[in-house]
Amino acid sequence: PSCRPNYDTILSWSRSFERLMKNKSGQKFFAEFLKSEYSDENILFYQACEELKREKNGEKVEEKARIIYEDFISILSPKEVSLDSRVREIVNSNMVRPTAATFDEAREQIFVLMQRDSYPRFINSALYQKMLGAHGLIEDA
């Protein structure tokens, strides 16, 4: 059984997007919400970047960076994230020699985009309200 976040934790997500994103369950619920809006490419990109930052093997870093690029940056990708031209330029020049930091600016821009755009909708969503309301009631097993 997955460890369910408690009421205070869930409530804290509405106070700060950082708190939501630092919490594994929070990120999972947020991703679920984005999927329901058909906009989960942002969180998938963000999570892929986080994973890339944890990778220590140089060859794997390069391989993962290329996959992330193909999946989320390439204009041919159906999951392309929305980046401004400045950040896109940075990513493109970083791809010459990819490192764990290749997508830092892009990740930051997508974080801000989610914070500004999707996060307020998530906090007002039925999904989030239901999670808050479900506490103190009998939890579904």
From TrEMBL:
Q: Which InterPro entries match?
A: RGS, RGS_sf, RGS_subdom1/3, RGS_subdomain_2
Question: What is a single Pfam family found in this protein's UniProt entry?
Answer: RGS
Highest taxon of source: Eukaryota
Q: Which residues cross the membrane?
A: none
Q: Where is the RGS domain?
A: 16-132
By its UniProt entry, which Gene3D superfamilies does this protein fall under?
A: 1.10.196.10, Regulator of G-protein Signalling 4, domain 2
Tell me the protein's name. Answer: RGS domain-containing protein
Species name? Pristionchus entomophagus
